[in-house]
Design brief:
Layout: H1 2-21, H2 28-40, H3 51-69
Helix pairs in contact: 2-3
Length: 91
């Protein structure tokens, strides 16, 4: 019974490590871009007083922005369409 508990504990420790191994590592540019996104959302890395709440708030804002940018459908804001057709249908 003890060996079964030890095995379950070992699996619980190893599975998260294996799931991260399948993700490609981030590049320096990707980390920098993510930090800039967080700072634009209000995160201040120098402010140690409100660190966890400040970071979580900024991450929530960035997640909402990313969700809005990846929504289905086309973004029609600021788009216009024109044609060279006249009322009679001639060019």
């Amino acid at each position: 019974m003890k060996s079964l508990i030890n095995f379950a504990f070992a699996v619980a420790l190893i599975v998260p490590l294996l799931s991260r191994a399948t993700e490609p590592p981030l590049t320096h540019a990707q980390v920098r871009a993510e930090l800039i996104q967080l700072e634009e959302a209000g995160y201040n890395p120098i402010d140690e007083n409100d660190y966890p709440q400040n970071l979580k708030h900024a991450q929530t804002i960035v997640a909402q922005q990313n969700a809005a940018n990846s929504a289905y459908g086309s973004n029609t804001a600021g788009m216009s369409q024109s044609s060279s057709m006249t009322r009679s249908g001639e060019k």
